[in-house]
Amino acid sequence: MTWRKLGVIAGGGELPVVLAEHCAATNRPYFVARITPYADAALNAHPGTDNGLGHLGGRMKAMREAGVDAVVLIGQVPRPDVSKLDLDDGAIAMLPAIMAALPQGDDALLRAILNEHERAGFQVVGAEAVMGDLLAPEGVWGAIAPTPAQMKDIIKGAKVAHAIGAFDIAQGVVVRDGHVLALEAAEGTDEMLNRVAALPDALRGTPDNRRGALVKRPKPIQERRIDLPVVGIRTVEGAARAGLAGIAVEAHGALAVRRAEMIAEADRLGLFLYGFTCAEAGDA
């Protein structure tokens, strides 16, 4: 998979910043298409352009003029209310495909957006194709390994996440001693962990008696070039506040942002980090 110049279409969060920094450090030609107002201010230090969410035509035009031939769609963007978006002519031309996908769920919407970029002549690549060490590895990452009981929570969480993912609901679940404490919905992982942290101590773990696991994996219907599950230091901090014993993600099916720093923080807080395989999860 080769390209001349990469367009980083950047929503919110740390991951687009990490990817842009990687491109700069490795002298890979790149151009950051910042989606305002969501993109991190740190991206202003990189070559690029600023466009609102509904300015798809303007964003593509700027990337073409910059010589971009491949794009990675990365970062957090809230599900839009199309009726309130400021749409440019390019976006209006794409509106029939986007409107048809909206009622079908997030994955269908992302596929429609991906298809429109491909129709416009851009190669769409996954973040891991640009920066291979983003992909979550298999097995124990840090100094702490899940116990057999915690592995049971991980496997149940993997099965539950697979089930809800088939309905295009979400990618995350929290399980403690076999009980499902929370399912991720539209609010995202951080807010789900906040909900768990607000539960009574009798239902969840505590810093002195950590119990349960956050489990994330891709939806079985998912287009894996976009919207893979993401974990990072903030995820570790949220899981710690929720009293969890650790975090598990599908190996090679999730992105781990600044993994070395993530591992150091998990070790410090006493949490395990684990990449489970599809075989361990019992996938058919």
TrEMBL record:
Name of the protein = UDP-2,3-diacylglucosamine pyrophosphatase LpxI
Ranges for the LpxI N-terminal domain?
Answer: 5-134
**InterPro entries in UniProt:** LpxI (IPR053174), LpxI_C (IPR010415), LpxI_C_sf (IPR043167), LpxI_N (IPR041255)
Leader sequence segment: none
- Domain (LpxI C-terminal) ranges: 137-274
Write down the species.
Terricaulis silvestris
Pfam families, per database record: LpxI_C (PF06230), LpxI_N (PF17930)
